[in-house]
Design a protein that fits this description.
The complex is a heterodimer of chains A (278) and B (262). Chain A has 278 residues and is mainly α. Chain A is globular, with a radius of gyration of 23 Å. Chain A starts with a helix and ends with a helix. Chain A has twelve helices and two strands; from the N terminus they run αββααααααααααα. By secondary structure, chain B is an all-alpha fold. Chain B is built from twelve helices and no strands. In chain B, helix 1 crosses helix 12 (229-261) and helix 9 runs antiparallel to helix 12. The longest helix of chain B is centred in the N-terminal third of the chain and has 34 residues, at 56-89. Chain B is globular and about 70 Å long. Classes of the chains: A mainly alpha (278), B mainly alpha (262).
C-alpha cells in the first residue's frame, strides 16, 4: 500500500540513528570486553581473560548473586503491594477510578533522585523515622541499621518500582470482560473463587511484564546502593562503575556490563515466551 | 466478602501512604529551621527557598537540564516518529530485531546504555559535554516516543487515510494533512513525557557528563558532600513541576483516546 519512496524515507533515518548510536555502541562494548589493560593502557589483543576473571574471582559472582537476591526481594515486595491494589482499583472501586489510577502512576514519572533522597532523610540515624520513634518513646537511641544497608536499598527500590508493576497488572485486569465475573457468580462461585479462577490467571501476563520490569531495573541499579546502600548494599553495577572510574579497567567493566546485557535479554525473551503461553 | 473488601481498602490506603508519605516528609522538611531530619520539625522558615533562589550554580544546572531536554525531544521525536510509522506500516527483513533494538532502552538498566555510549564516544574521540548527554537521552527516549506515537497510530481511523489516497492525494499529502493531525495529541503527550524523563534522568547522564552539570547531577554531587533542607526545597519544586507535566500528559492522552472513539 505504501510506496517504496515512502517506506524508505520513514525507515532510513531511524535505522541509521539506532544502528549508529545503539547497535554500534553495544557492539563496541562487546569488543572491549575482550581487551586488556596493561600498565594503565588498554591493549587491543583479543583474550577471554576478562570473562575467566568474572567466573573465577568469587567477588564478582557473589555480588551478582546478592544483586539478584536484592532484585528478587524488590520484585516480590512490589508484587505484594501492586497486585491487590490493582485488583481493588479495577474491580472494587466504582467512583473516582481514573483519579486513583493517576495517583498510582504519578510516582512513576517523578524523579528517581527525589524519591531516593527522600528515603535517605527518613532512614538516617538523625532521620525522620528514628526521631519520630524516639519522640514517641518506642526506642531510646537511634537505630543505625536502617540506613546504609541492603534493607534500605530494597525499601527504596520497592518504592520506585511498585508503580511499574501496578501498571501492566492493572491494564490486564481492565481487559478482563466484566461478564465473566457475572457468569462466575451466576454459576454460584464465591467472590474468592471467582478471583482465583478468573481474575488471577487472566492477570498473570500483566504480572509477568511487571515482574520483568522490576527485576531487571533493580538488578542494574547503582544509584540507590551508592546513596543509601552502604558497603553491605553494594550491587553489581557499583562494581562496574568503579571499574570504569577509579579502578580503571574498562575492558573488565565492559565484560561485566555485557554479562548483564545478555542476562537482561535472556530474561526478557524468557518472560515474553511465557507470556505467550499463558 | 465484606472483610475482604475492608482488607483490600486498608491495603490500598497503606500502599498510598508508602508511596506518598516520603514525598510529603521531604516537602515538610524543606520548611524546617535547622536540619533535614529530627522530629518534630521545628522553626518553620522559608529560608531554604530564599537560599535556593540565590543559588546560581543550581539554576545554571537547571538551565542546562532544560537545554538537554529540548535537544532530547528533537532527537527522540525526530527519530521516534518515522520509527513508529515504520513499525506501523513498513515490512522489511530484520523488522523484529529493529523493533527490539529501538525499544530496548525502555527496560535496559541505564548503566548499560550509558557505558556503551561512553565507550563509543571515547573510541571516536568525541569530548563529553551537554551535547553528549542530550545524545544519550534522545537516543534512549526514542523508545518512549515510538511507543506513545505507535499507540496513537493504533487508535487512528484508517478509513480517512484511504479516502484521502482514493481522492487523489499523494502519500505525503496524506501524511501531512491526515495522519499527523490525527496523532497530534500523541506527539504532544510524548513531548511532555520525554521532557519530564530527560529532566529527571541521572543514570545515563552519570556517564556522559562533561564539565557542565545537569540539575540531577548537581543535586547528586551535593548529596555526597552533606545535605541541607535546601535540597528538600529544590526536590519539592522538582516534584511539583513533574506533577503538573504528568497531569497534563494524562489529560492529553485521555483526550486522544476519546477523540478517536468518536
Amino acid at each position: 500500500m505504501y510506496s517504496k519512496a515512502y517506506s524508505r524515507t520513514v525507515l532510513i533515518p531511524p535505522l541509521v540513528w539506532v544502528g549508529l548510536f545503539l547497535f554500534v555502541p553495544y557492539l563496541i562494548l562487546f569488543l572491549y570486553s575482550f581487551w586488556q589493560v596493561r600498565f594503565q593502557v588498554i591493549v587491543h589483543d583479543a583474550t577471554s581473560a576478562n570473562y575467566a576473571e568474572i567466573l573465577h574471582n568469587p567477588l564478582y559472582l557473589s555480588v551478582l548473586f546478592r544483586s539478584a537476591g536484592i532484585a528478587a526481594a524488590v520484585t516480590c515486595a512490589c508484587l505484594l503491594l501492586a497486585f491487590p491494589l490493582a485488583y481493588y482499583v479495577s474491580f472494587r472501586l466504582r467512583t473516582r477510578k481514573e483519579a486513583v489510577y493517576l495517583l498510582v502512576i504519578i510516582p512513576l514519572w517523578v524523579s528517581y533522585l527525589v524519591r531516593a533522597y527522600a528515603w535517605k532523610t527518613i532512614l538516617g540515624s538523625d532521620g525522620v523515622l528514628n526521631k519520630l520513634l524516639e519522640f514517641a518513646g518506642v526506642i531510646d537511641h537511634p537505630a543505625n541499621f536502617l540506613l546504609y544497608s541492603p534493607f534500605a536499598v530494597i525499601l527504596t527500590l520497592t518504592h520506585i518500582y511498585t508503580p511499574f508493576v501496578f501498571l501492566p497488572v492493572y491494564a490486564s485486569m481492565e481487559h478482563i470482560p466484566r461478564n465473566l465475573m457475572e457468569a462466575a457468580s451466576d454459576l454460584g462461585a464465591s467472590s474468592s473463587r471467582a478471583f482465583w479462577t478468573v481474575v488471577f490467571p487472566l492477570a498473570l501476563p500483566g504480572a509477568l511484564a511487571g515482574i520483568t520490569f522490576a527485576f531487571v531495573l533493580s538488578l542494574g541499579d547503582f544509584l540507590a546502593p551508592l546513596l543509601i546502600g552502604g558497603p553491605r548494599g553494594i550491587m553489581i553495577s557499583n562494581i562496574v562503575v568503579s571499574l570504569f572510574g577509579a579502578a580503571y579497567n574498562w575492558p573488565l567493566g565492559a565484560a561485566l556490563s555485557f554479562v548483564m546485557l545478555v542476562l537482561v535479554i535472556a530474561i526478557i525473551t524468557l518472560t515474553e515466551r511465557l507470556e505467550k503461553r499463558l | 466478602m465484606r472483610t475482604t473488601s475492608r482488607l483490600l481498602s486498608i491495603h490500598a490506603v497503606a500502599v498510598f501512604a508508602f508511596l506518598y508519605l516520603p514525598i510529603v516528609a521531604l516537602a515538610i522538611y524543606s520548611f524546617n529551621g535547622e536540619s533535614v531530619g529530627g522530629f518534630p520539625p521545628h522553626g518553620w522558615t522559608l529560608n531554604w527557598y530564599r537560599e535556593l533562589l540565590r543559588d546560581e550554580a543550581l539554576w545554571r544546572s537547571a538551565g542546562n537540564s532544560v537545554i538537554v531536554a529540548m535537544l532530547a525531544i528533537v532527537i527522540s521525536i525526530g527519530i521516534g516518529l518515522p520509527a513508529a510509522l515504520t513499525l506501523d506500516r513498513v515490512s522489511f527483513p530484520g523488522k523484529a530485531l529493529f523493533r527490539r533494538l529501538v525499544l530496548l532502552p525502555l527496560i535496559l538498566p541505564g548503566i548499560i546504555t550509558g557505558l556503551s555510549l561512553l565507550i563509543f564516544l571515547s573510541s571516536v574521540g568525541i569530548r563529553l559535554s551537554l551535547l553528549t548527554i542530550a545524545l544519550g537521552h534522545g537516543t534512549a527516549l526514542i523508545s518512549v516516543a515510538t511507543t506513545e506515537i505507535l499507540a496513537g497510530l493504533g487508535k487512528m481511523d484508517r478509513a480517512q487515510e484511504e479516502a484521502s489516497l482514493d481522492l487523489g492525494a499523494t502519500q505525503w499529502q496524506t501524511l501531512w494533512r491526515i495522519t499527523l493531525p490525527n496523532i497530534k495529541l500523541s506527539i504532544i503527550a510524548a513531548v511532555l513525557l520525554i521532557f519530564t524523563l530527560s529532566f529527571d534522568e541521572i543514570a545515563l547522564s552519570f556517564f556522559l557528563i562533561g564539565r557542565e552539570n545537569t540539575l540531577p547531577l548537581e543535586i547528586w554531587a551535593r548529596l555526597r558532600r552533606g545535605i541541607t533542607p535546601e535540597i528538600n526545597a529544590i526536590s519539592t519544586l522538582i516534584f511539583l513541576f513533574s506533577l503538573v507535566l504528568i497531569v497534563v500528559w494524562h489529560k492529553l492522552r485521555a483526550r486522544s483516546a476519546s477523540a478517536s472513539t468518536q
